[in-house]
Amino acid sequence: MSDESPTNVLFVVMDTVRKDHLTPYGYERPTTPGLESFAEESMVFEQAVAPAPWTLPVHASMFTGMYPSRHGADQETPYLDNATTLAETLSAAGYDTACYSSNAWITPYTHLTDGFDDQNNFFEVMPGDLLSGPLAKAWKTLNDNERLRAVADKLVSLGNTAHEYLADGEGADSKTPAVIDQTMEFIEKSDRSFAFINLMDAHLPYHPPKEYREKFAPGVDSTEVCQNSKEYNSGARDITDSEWEDIRGLYDAEIAHIDDQLTRLFDWLKETDRWDDTMVVVCADHGELHGEHDLYGHEFCLYDPLINVPLMVKHPELGTGRRDDQVELVDLYHTVLDALNVEGGKPASPGEDVVARDETRSLLSASYREFADADSPDPGQKGSPDGDYAFVEYSRPIVELKQLEEKAKAGGVTLPEDSRFYSRMRAVRRPDVKYVRIDRIPNEAYRLDEDPGELTNLAGKGDEKIEAAEQALARFEEAAGGAWTGADDVEVTDDALDDMDDTTQERLRDLGYME
């Protein structure tokens, strides 16, 4: 990097934000005038791909430079373990690091906040001080024990249910101004900083502030529309076209609030002469479905509205404009290290897995994705011809599945086990083609250049590009330890509570999960 390279990084994740609902990506509604201005100062990526369709594995990938099958953080093991994070590496290099969010997955108990000198989670159900120390240890204990893991699944389900009710009328957007305020306070006190923020406004349930609701969803009562995706996905509730329109309006209102708050932060950086010295990354960790493919939310599939996410990066080495080449969010790990000229590769603790900086994975590098070393420990990262592809992994969604079963049972619906709901999935993607391996239902393949809505499944139909993509996925799977061929069921029972130690039970009483 040149001597004029920024010495600070601001990394923004707009949780659950679809690319096609942002003004810089051609959306007809003025949801994001601030980001439209930001796009004029940054490089806008049209083909950015998330490594998974939900928060925990995506953030773990961005924080480690590893695909989900390598770092292992998913709903079956809901924490990052034995891996050195980007924040740990930057902190060791002398950077001040901070993480502020209202996302329940980005907390000490999942270890995603490891390495951040300062962190605050504004999630209203599980306060941050209860997610460290004994509770963090208890959470890990629960998930490391096969019987107790079922209890952990149920606790997260209960927590999500509590969030659904407690957030009613006051969604995560109410926390966003505090996230922005704390970010400014942190940056003001730092000479060399890495600030990471996650903004949860656009995540269900949608209860936007009044001024945005009146603009994008006039007359819509957010308590009257379906705010629980599992009710719809299970078949227990139908959603009419007019209700979908209201839901999308509320969603747009939430995005508009994010845009307003980000604009406030960006304006402050400019007013305090910090803008030019700050690399800014703005992306989404995944998108959202609003009825496409008869699905609601971001579970049970790997369609493009979930994994082809917005990404904009402001850095002098990138310049301004738009790029159509495919990139991966996992590459942001290398991009930040490259921007700050930090090599990485040193474990924060003995024996931890760690990824060193690789310029062929940095968006700032002229040699981006010009892979030469076919022996990379990360599958799919190196070696011709797979550099043209992105890879996505979706482990069995335990928490969502349990909630789905609860909603189905309440609605008198029986879910077939041989369905996408119980499936693990892996996908390989290029801008023109996608192949999805699914373990319980037929595989899916689409020519994205001819069928961007992914409506016609061409798996097994003899298309040469699809067959080449399937071969690339097979190579990835082989390097990752083999293809997923089945997903065991997990039965949640209260009997396992008796196996917990006194400390665990005490902390669960503090949270109201036990009497």
TrEMBL record:
Pfam families: Sulfatase. Residues 370-389, 484-515 are annotated as: Disordered. Residues 8-342 form the Sulfatase N-terminal domain. Signal peptide: none annotated. Residues 488-503 have a biased composition (Acidic residues). Residues 504-515 have a biased composition (Basic and acidic residues). SUPFAM superfamilies: Alkaline phosphatase-like. This is Sulfatase. It comes from Haloprofundus marisrubri.
